[in-house]
Amino acid sequence: MNHASDQAAPADGPNPKSLWWSLIIGLLLAFGLLEYAAHRWLFALEQAAYGRETSAAAARDFVCQGASNHPVCASAYARSGRPPVALWLGNSQLAAINRMRPGDNNAPALLHADLAARGRYLVSYQMPNASLDEHILMVEAVLPTYDPQLVILPVCYDDIRETSIRDDVRAMVDLPGVRAAMAADPLGAEMLHVASAGTTEAEVSTDDPKSVRPKVESAIVGWLEGHSSLWAKRSSLRGMLGFAVHTLRNKMLGINSQTKRPVPPSLEAERLARLDQFLREMRGRGTRVLLYVPPYRQNVSGPYVSADYARFKARLQALAAANGARYADLDAIVPGPEWGMVTDDLFGFQEYDFMHFTAAGHQRLAAAVDAQLRAMQF
Fold first, then answer.
1. Are strands 150-154 and 339-343 parallel, antiparallel or unpaired?
2. 179 is a domain residue
């Protein structure tokens, strides 16, 4: 039989005061952890791709990344008197120097000086892990600015996995005159489509123009960014968390920079087809192209599957020959001692660096590219 006492609410339920104290203590601990991360770890995140041994070279007015600093390079070129231009695309290999010392220069700075002595001008656009689509979109976007006589294009085997276009590169199409110029030729029009396909729904405003919500949200966000360092650094904090999870996951699974990472054949074929289209358009424009395989560490086993990599280089060489471009295999020009290690500042894990080398390596790369340009009578 059920009694009234059986249905009574228990007298020993949770204490509301203890719940509030738990919440307050949890928030304080979370806030403290975020503050510590913002002041101790975010700098390390900015250098995460390089590691402790490697640093980006000093900023130059002939080296840019995208729309945010394109005006700097464009203005410097205009001040130079607009001599004939060589446009060098690249990734972080061109920017960073391992074990950098005062006075060290990277390859673009060295080649820029060499070409200036011959009445030529080098301008370089580079982004870490740059995709082939980003390179091609960048070339199409800066044609009206520089009308380059020669394009220097490294094709990094590892980077053909990258297919995204970052906002700073995508924004190049919105510079004055760029969109119309790109729409006037088949490849340019296709790259406009590729760039627009990468636009997320969040970037497209669907708000009622009469709505006050966007204004209120903008005011709140602006106030928070001006008064809260944590809020202003929220994107970096999210990136730090992603980096930490990725690093720990790789460590637990035994994945490192030497782990073999085959490139899917379908992706390779797609990338090479896009490259073929680019080379054909450059030939039609009368723009010469130096297509080269970038330096790759040789003294230890690396992430490339040897047979696949050799076949890939052969395909690059064949594409260059078919389209009147010059091909150079520069993968072995930097000896082992001139490469570095990647030691991340967050956990201290260390592994071989297959992308960045010392200033001596940059001198070798600049000299090798310059030799190719001289052979092309540029």
1. unpaired
2. yes
Apex 373 CA angle, 368 and 378, nearest 5: 155
Please give the C-alpha separations between residue 133 and each of 14, 138, 224, 314, in angstroms, as whole numbers. 58, 8, 36, 21
Sign of CA dihedral 136, 137, 142, 144: positive
Helix orientation angle between 359-375 and 107-116, rounded to the nearest 10 degrees: 40
Asked whether residue 83 is assigned to any structural domain, the reply reads yes
Identify the three-state secondary structure at position 289: strand
Number of domains in the chain: 1
> pLDDT tens across 214-245, in order?
666 666 656 656 655 656 666 655 655 665 67
CATH of the domain at 295: 3.40.50.1110
Which tokens go with 369?
């590219």
The alpha carbons of the chain give a radius of gyration, in whole angstroms, of: 26
**pTM, entire model:** 0.80
Helix, strand, or coil (residue 292): strand
Q: Does residue 325 belong to any structural domain of this protein?
A: yes
Q: How far apart are CA 34 and CA 48, in angstroms?
A: 19
Q: Is 54 helix (H, G, I), strand (E, B) or coil?
A: strand
Model confidence pLDDT, tens digit, residues 1-39: 455 445 554 556 566 766 677 767 766 665 565 555 555
Collapsing DSSP to helix, strand or coil, 48 comes out as: coil
Domain containing 368 equals 42-199+262-375
List of E strands, the chain: 54-56, 63-64, 85-90, 96-98, 121-126, 150-154, 288-293, 326-329, 339-343, 350-357
